[in-house]
Design a protein that fits this description.
Blueprint (H helix, E strand, L loop, with lengths): L11 E8 L2 E8 L6 E8 L23 H7 L25 E3 L2 E4 L4 E6 L5 E6 L6 E9 L5 E4 L11 E5 L16 E7 L4 E6 L10 E7 L1 H9 L7 E7 L7 E4 L2
Parallel strand pairs: 7-8
Antiparallel strand pairs: 1-2, 2-3, 4-5, 4-15, 6-7, 6-15, 8-9, 8-14, 10-13, 11-12, 11-13
Protein backbone atom coordinates (compact mmCIF):
# COMPACT_ATOMS: atom_id res chain seq x y z
CA UNK A 1 0.00 0.00 0.00
CA UNK A 2 1.49 3.35 -1.07
CA UNK A 3 0.48 6.66 0.41
CA UNK A 4 1.05 10.11 -1.08
CA UNK A 5 1.66 13.22 0.96
CA UNK A 6 -1.14 14.63 3.19
CA UNK A 7 -4.18 15.98 1.38
CA UNK A 8 -4.29 19.69 0.53
CA UNK A 9 -7.25 22.05 0.58
CA UNK A 10 -7.57 21.59 -3.17
CA UNK A 11 -7.58 17.80 -2.99
CA UNK A 12 -10.34 15.71 -4.50
CA UNK A 13 -10.71 12.02 -3.73
CA UNK A 14 -13.12 9.14 -4.23
CA UNK A 15 -13.08 5.80 -2.44
CA UNK A 16 -14.62 2.61 -3.78
CA UNK A 17 -15.15 -0.74 -2.06
CA UNK A 18 -13.76 -3.05 -4.74
CA UNK A 19 -14.68 -6.19 -2.84
CA UNK A 20 -14.71 -7.23 0.83
CA UNK A 21 -11.32 -6.40 2.28
CA UNK A 22 -10.19 -4.19 -0.61
CA UNK A 23 -10.69 -0.43 -1.02
CA UNK A 24 -9.47 1.76 -3.87
CA UNK A 25 -8.96 5.50 -3.46
CA UNK A 26 -8.19 7.92 -6.27
CA UNK A 27 -6.98 11.30 -5.07
CA UNK A 28 -5.92 14.35 -7.06
CA UNK A 29 -3.85 17.03 -5.33
CA UNK A 30 -3.55 20.36 -7.10
CA UNK A 31 -0.99 22.49 -5.25
CA UNK A 32 0.79 24.86 -7.66
CA UNK A 33 4.25 23.49 -6.89
CA UNK A 34 3.67 19.78 -7.50
CA UNK A 35 0.29 18.40 -8.65
CA UNK A 36 -0.17 14.72 -7.89
CA UNK A 37 -2.44 11.99 -9.22
CA UNK A 38 -2.49 9.38 -6.44
CA UNK A 39 -3.86 5.84 -6.48
CA UNK A 40 -4.21 4.03 -3.13
CA UNK A 41 -5.15 0.39 -2.63
CA UNK A 42 -6.04 -0.62 0.94
CA UNK A 43 -5.95 -4.34 1.68
CA UNK A 44 -7.26 -5.92 4.87
CA UNK A 45 -4.81 -8.70 5.70
CA UNK A 46 -7.28 -10.14 8.22
CA UNK A 47 -9.90 -10.86 5.56
CA UNK A 48 -9.82 -14.64 4.89
CA UNK A 49 -10.84 -14.11 1.26
CA UNK A 50 -7.61 -12.20 0.53
CA UNK A 51 -4.56 -14.10 -0.69
CA UNK A 52 -1.22 -13.14 -2.19
CA UNK A 53 0.97 -14.67 -4.86
CA UNK A 54 4.41 -13.90 -6.24
CA UNK A 55 4.53 -13.43 -10.00
CA UNK A 56 7.62 -13.89 -12.15
CA UNK A 57 8.20 -12.35 -15.56
CA UNK A 58 7.44 -15.20 -17.99
CA UNK A 59 7.67 -17.51 -14.99
CA UNK A 60 11.44 -17.15 -14.44
CA UNK A 61 13.89 -15.00 -12.50
CA UNK A 62 15.33 -13.08 -15.46
CA UNK A 63 12.16 -13.04 -17.58
CA UNK A 64 10.80 -9.80 -18.98
CA UNK A 65 7.04 -9.22 -18.89
CA UNK A 66 4.68 -6.36 -18.09
CA UNK A 67 2.80 -6.29 -14.79
CA UNK A 68 -0.68 -6.37 -16.46
CA UNK A 69 0.10 -9.50 -18.48
CA UNK A 70 1.47 -11.23 -15.38
CA UNK A 71 -1.76 -10.40 -13.55
CA UNK A 72 -3.82 -11.73 -16.46
CA UNK A 73 -2.11 -15.10 -16.12
CA UNK A 74 -3.11 -15.42 -12.45
CA UNK A 75 -6.67 -16.63 -11.94
CA UNK A 76 -8.96 -14.27 -9.99
CA UNK A 77 -6.24 -11.65 -9.63
CA UNK A 78 -7.51 -8.26 -8.49
CA UNK A 79 -4.39 -6.09 -8.42
CA UNK A 80 -0.68 -6.35 -9.16
CA UNK A 81 2.22 -4.22 -7.95
CA UNK A 82 5.73 -4.17 -9.40
CA UNK A 83 8.50 -5.46 -7.14
CA UNK A 84 12.25 -6.06 -6.98
CA UNK A 85 15.00 -4.18 -8.75
CA UNK A 86 17.03 -5.51 -11.66
CA UNK A 87 20.56 -4.50 -12.54
CA UNK A 88 21.11 -2.10 -15.42
CA UNK A 89 24.27 -3.79 -16.69
CA UNK A 90 25.32 -7.29 -17.64
CA UNK A 91 23.78 -9.75 -20.03
CA UNK A 92 21.06 -10.97 -17.66
CA UNK A 93 20.01 -7.82 -15.78
CA UNK A 94 19.14 -10.21 -12.98
CA UNK A 95 16.93 -9.30 -10.00
CA UNK A 96 18.83 -7.89 -7.04
CA UNK A 97 16.84 -9.17 -4.08
CA UNK A 98 15.10 -12.11 -2.48
CA UNK A 99 12.07 -13.75 -4.08
CA UNK A 100 9.99 -16.69 -2.82
CA UNK A 101 7.14 -18.08 -4.90
CA UNK A 102 4.71 -20.55 -3.30
CA UNK A 103 7.34 -21.44 -0.72
CA UNK A 104 10.18 -21.97 -3.21
CA UNK A 105 13.29 -19.81 -3.01
CA UNK A 106 13.81 -18.22 -6.45
CA UNK A 107 16.46 -15.57 -5.74
CA UNK A 108 18.53 -14.68 -2.68
CA UNK A 109 18.55 -11.50 -0.56
CA UNK A 110 20.60 -8.38 -1.05
CA UNK A 111 20.91 -5.06 0.77
CA UNK A 112 17.42 -3.93 -0.19
CA UNK A 113 13.99 -3.81 1.40
CA UNK A 114 11.64 -6.75 0.91
CA UNK A 115 8.13 -7.67 2.02
CA UNK A 116 7.11 -11.15 3.07
CA UNK A 117 3.58 -12.50 3.56
CA UNK A 118 3.31 -15.49 5.90
CA UNK A 119 0.85 -18.36 5.48
CA UNK A 120 -1.31 -16.50 8.04
CA UNK A 121 -1.32 -13.30 5.91
CA UNK A 122 1.02 -11.54 8.32
CA UNK A 123 3.22 -8.99 6.56
CA UNK A 124 6.83 -8.25 7.42
CA UNK A 125 8.87 -5.50 5.80
CA UNK A 126 12.60 -5.19 6.34
CA UNK A 127 16.09 -5.27 4.91
CA UNK A 128 17.18 -8.78 3.98
CA UNK A 129 20.92 -9.32 4.38
CA UNK A 130 21.35 -6.19 6.46
CA UNK A 131 23.26 -5.36 9.62
CA UNK A 132 20.48 -3.17 11.03
CA UNK A 133 17.21 -4.53 12.46
CA UNK A 134 14.90 -5.82 11.25
CA UNK A 135 17.73 -7.74 9.58
CA UNK A 136 17.51 -10.83 7.39
CA UNK A 137 20.89 -12.49 6.93
CA UNK A 138 21.83 -14.89 4.11
CA UNK A 139 24.05 -17.91 4.70
CA UNK A 140 24.36 -20.08 1.60
CA UNK A 141 26.88 -22.87 1.29
CA UNK A 142 27.72 -26.14 -0.44
CA UNK A 143 29.41 -29.03 1.39
CA UNK A 144 30.79 -32.17 -0.25
CA UNK A 145 31.01 -35.70 1.17
CA UNK A 146 34.49 -35.04 2.58
CA UNK A 147 33.27 -32.02 4.52
CA UNK A 148 34.82 -29.41 2.23
CA UNK A 149 32.62 -26.32 2.33
CA UNK A 150 32.29 -23.23 0.14
CA UNK A 151 29.97 -20.25 0.47
CA UNK A 152 27.23 -19.68 -2.11
CA UNK A 153 26.86 -15.99 -2.93
CA UNK A 154 23.59 -15.90 -4.89
CA UNK A 155 20.92 -17.98 -6.60
CA UNK A 156 19.53 -17.21 -10.08
CA UNK A 157 21.30 -13.86 -10.17
CA UNK A 158 24.65 -12.43 -11.32
CA UNK A 159 28.00 -14.22 -11.22
CA UNK A 160 31.33 -12.48 -10.58
CA UNK A 161 34.89 -13.86 -10.50
CA UNK A 162 35.51 -15.94 -7.39
CA UNK A 163 31.80 -16.43 -6.73
CA UNK A 164 30.09 -19.78 -6.30
CA UNK A 165 26.42 -19.46 -7.28
CA UNK A 166 23.40 -21.60 -8.14
CA UNK A 167 21.00 -21.71 -11.09
CA UNK A 168 17.69 -23.55 -10.86
CA UNK A 169 14.94 -24.42 -13.35
CA UNK A 170 13.48 -20.97 -12.68
CA UNK A 171 16.60 -19.09 -13.82
CA UNK A 172 15.65 -18.39 -17.46
CA UNK A 173 12.99 -19.18 -20.06
CA UNK A 174 15.34 -21.56 -21.85
CA UNK A 175 15.70 -23.50 -18.58
CA UNK A 176 19.42 -23.51 -19.35
CA UNK A 177 22.22 -22.56 -16.99
CA UNK A 178 24.45 -19.59 -17.80
CA UNK A 179 26.95 -21.76 -19.68
CA UNK A 180 30.45 -20.65 -20.65
CA UNK A 181 29.51 -16.97 -20.78
CA UNK A 182 32.88 -16.14 -19.24
CA UNK A 183 36.25 -17.85 -19.23
CA UNK A 184 37.12 -20.10 -16.30
CA UNK A 185 33.47 -20.92 -15.62
CA UNK A 186 32.68 -24.40 -14.29
CA UNK A 187 29.22 -25.88 -13.77
CA UNK A 188 28.03 -28.99 -11.94
CA UNK A 189 24.54 -30.40 -12.57
CA UNK A 190 23.16 -31.73 -9.29
CA UNK A 191 19.99 -33.73 -8.63
CA UNK A 192 17.49 -32.62 -5.98
CA UNK A 193 18.83 -35.33 -3.64
CA UNK A 194 22.31 -33.78 -3.90
CA UNK A 195 23.85 -36.30 -6.32
CA UNK A 196 26.35 -34.76 -8.75
CA UNK A 197 25.16 -35.79 -12.23
CA UNK A 198 27.79 -34.12 -14.44
CA UNK A 199 30.56 -31.51 -14.40
CA UNK A 200 31.20 -29.08 -17.27
CA UNK A 201 34.22 -26.83 -17.79
CA UNK A 202 33.58 -23.81 -20.05
CA UNK A 203 30.73 -25.53 -21.88
CA UNK A 204 27.42 -24.34 -23.29
CA UNK A 205 24.43 -23.90 -20.99
CA UNK A 206 23.17 -27.05 -19.29
CA UNK A 207 19.45 -27.96 -19.48
CA UNK A 208 18.13 -27.79 -15.91
CA UNK A 209 15.31 -30.23 -15.04
CA UNK A 210 12.72 -29.06 -12.51
CA UNK A 211 14.13 -31.53 -9.98
CA UNK A 212 17.77 -30.43 -10.29
CA UNK A 213 20.05 -27.40 -9.95
CA UNK A 214 23.40 -26.19 -11.26
CA UNK A 215 26.36 -25.11 -9.13
CA UNK A 216 28.40 -22.48 -10.97
CA UNK A 217 31.82 -21.07 -10.17
CA UNK A 218 34.13 -18.59 -11.87
CA UNK A 219 37.93 -18.52 -11.52
CA UNK A 220 38.85 -19.77 -8.03
CA UNK A 221 35.29 -20.88 -7.28
CA UNK A 222 35.20 -22.87 -10.52
CA UNK A 223 38.47 -24.51 -9.58
CA UNK A 224 36.94 -25.48 -6.22
CA UNK A 225 34.27 -27.45 -8.11
CA UNK A 226 36.92 -29.25 -10.19
CA UNK A 227 39.07 -29.98 -7.14
CA UNK A 228 36.34 -31.21 -4.80
CA UNK A 229 33.33 -32.62 -6.66
CA UNK A 230 33.08 -35.88 -8.58
CA UNK A 231 30.19 -37.39 -10.51
CA UNK A 232 28.12 -39.65 -8.27
CA UNK A 233 28.96 -38.08 -4.91
CA UNK A 234 26.39 -36.18 -2.88
CA UNK A 235 26.58 -32.58 -1.77
CA UNK A 236 24.51 -30.48 0.61
CA UNK A 237 23.17 -27.07 -0.40
CA UNK A 238 22.39 -24.92 2.64
CA UNK A 239 20.06 -21.96 2.12
CA UNK A 240 19.46 -20.11 5.35
CA UNK A 241 18.16 -16.69 6.29
CA UNK A 242 17.31 -15.32 9.69
CA UNK A 243 14.33 -15.05 10.04
CA UNK A 244 13.74 -18.15 7.94
CA UNK A 245 12.55 -17.45 4.38
CA UNK A 246 10.49 -20.65 4.63
CA UNK A 247 8.08 -18.77 6.91
CA UNK A 248 7.07 -16.54 3.98
CA UNK A 249 5.60 -18.46 1.02
CA UNK A 250 5.14 -15.09 -0.71
CA UNK A 251 8.18 -12.83 -0.55
CA UNK A 252 9.39 -10.12 -2.93
CA UNK A 253 11.98 -7.38 -2.98
CA UNK A 254 11.09 -3.73 -3.25
CA UNK A 255 10.85 -2.16 -6.68
Amino acid sequence: MLWGRPAFAGSESTTTDVRPGVKYTHRVDTPPDLPQDIHILEIDLNNPAISFQTGLGRGVAVGRETIPTQADRIENSLAAVNADFSGFTGSTQAPQNICVQEGELITTPNFRTAIGISEYNEARIGFWNSTSPPAFSWQGFVRDEQGNKHGVIQQNQDLNPGWLCVNTYHYAESHLSRGGEFEDEVEALIDQDGTVLSIHDNSDGIPIPENAWVLIGRTTAGQWILDNLTVGEKVVYGRNTAPDWREYPTLVGAG
